[in-house]
Design a protein that fits this description.
mainly alpha; Integral membrane protein; transmembrane helix
Amino acid sequence: MPQNKKEGIFFTTIVCFSMVISMSAYNLLLHGQFSLSNLFGGLVPGFIVAFIFDVLVVSSPAKKIAFSLPVNKEKKIQLIIAVSSCMVLGMVFFMSMYGVFMQFGFTENFLRYYVDAFAKNLIMALPLQLLLVGPLCRMILSMSRQSNWLKETND
């Protein structure tokens, strides 16, 4: 887990990017619209929206909820699972809304489309985050920490 502000920004960026590209590919495949042009065409706006939701809306409440859960906070893995799960729930809540809005707009069927998208996204996002993206990004963070390029300086 990040130990300073620089590491926090780096970690948030790589997790957010990894989840956006993965979930975008998943949703395009679900709707039979996958192509590299569709994937990369929506990547920058999707990443910007996800990063804003992550930093400004989801992160703080998700961490507060995770730390209030009855998990052994001395066991790092339990804390990681709690925080990651709460983050995924919050991000799927908002990003499913964003995805439905971008694909269909606010129609009379918005709520039905949203509930369907939320369920399908949660099924994919939670294991993706817990089993692949989270561990991979923590490994990248650890490697970057060893190279000292994320070290806080007084510059």
